[in-house]
Amino acid sequence: MDKILILDFGSQTTQLIGRRIRELGVYTEIIPGDADLAAVLADTEAGYSLRGLILSGSPESVYTPAGPVPDRRIYSCGLPLLGICYGLQRITVDNGGEVKPLAKREYGGVKVRVRSGGRSPGRPGKKKTEVFTAWMSHGDTLTKLAPGFVETGTSETGYPAVVVHREKPWYGLQFHPEVTHCERGMETLSSFVFGICGCKKSWTMEAHIEEVRASLAAKVGSAPVLLLISGGVDSTVAAALLLKILGPDQVYLMYIDTGLMRRGETGQVKTTLERLGARHLHILMAEDEFLSALKGKQNPEEKRKTIGDLFIRVQERELKRLGLPENYFLAQGTIYTDLIESGQGIGKKAHVIKSHHNVGSPLVDAKRREGRIVEPLDRLYKDEVRALGRILGISPSVINRHPFPGPGLGVRILGEVTKEKCAILREADAIFMEELKTRGLYDKIWQAFAVLLPIRSVGVAGDIRKYGWVLALRAITSSDGMTAGVYPFPSKDLLEISTRITNTVTDIGRVTYDISSKPPATIEWE
Asked: pTM for the whole thing?
């Protein structure tokens, strides 16, 4: 099987590069950007043939001590290289070129003019000038090309955007082809993978299942596995995968109703898991315990870690009732966006965007250090998780459900979380979802939800002065969750949805619509 190796320097979209190439049908692996490559380049792994290397972006700069440096063997191994953003800058500096900071950062959609792309990974063989919108995210630029390189693409701001080596199969892009907003991105990656590296399509989601099967056999063996179910798509797919590979006798499922769930969540989770063949399903009602732990807490990170820690404490306490032996493994539905946003990507250079309850919790970290964590989805993005769920036979109504954060309503109620606020938000969010489905909009939106803001607003209900909570609605479009645009609601729909919410949920006096994209905003508010 042909393989592309990605060197991860800490970019928020490194795994997205791998996901795009897997989408093309080629197997990819991601390793730390500064890893020793002696064994890897020897290509000793049975069944795989290394065809090319990609150097990812990074939040660091090549001219600072923190800038990660790759093993110099990449420049003498003879394999094709593709540097993306920081990766291009790294190749440039390592081979005698220069990189300096920009006076003004290039960010977002920027026009790129590619000239005579005969040796460009954009469209090899095309001898003409083309213009397209690329996705930029960098504060440094090439000020002097390394010997042997030529500039074949330039951004509208006048900086190098595409460079190629005259003789060696080395290419560099100052933009991010892996991001969905980048025009011609998939075409660019396809050109490198197939046209330059000569790869053949051989990787499928079924192949990924077999990889997980082999990994579980080596790590878990016959030991019991306990999976904490949150009720969302990720943990449900993780449960289905574990049940398929390990069997229902080895897999124990624990669902904790924290009181921070969506309306009707617990009943739906129970039905879904029983249909998947679960035999050891334990549902715990712990609303009072979680709300008590959250009392007085307003900081988002503190709330996330409080919920994550309590999840583990409740789980450990309930283990005695299950009678599991000490050698059990704890499984989670962690996906890669959880890891990378928490600063726990492949390498050590990713920056923390926000802590996820199943990643940043000190108790989860302790379990991870013990080697007792199983995360069968930790290298997949949301759309890949859904594709896997379909293969595993999970109902489309579950698979196509919008993402829901592990901490639940706890991070959709800004400020202190109370039982009263949970009830208000739960009802408003349910109305929002019902309206989207009734209007045929639900499946057009990647994720939609309501957020209860920590402010009240003056209003009028009939002839009575009203002082009600402010609710924000959020609806975004995306394909992988790493970048997101705002769903362009027709005004009529927004007005009617807002009216139904304020008429039905009397404690809400005002409704707003969040029009922030990701980036600069995250999808969730906290």
From this structure: 0.70
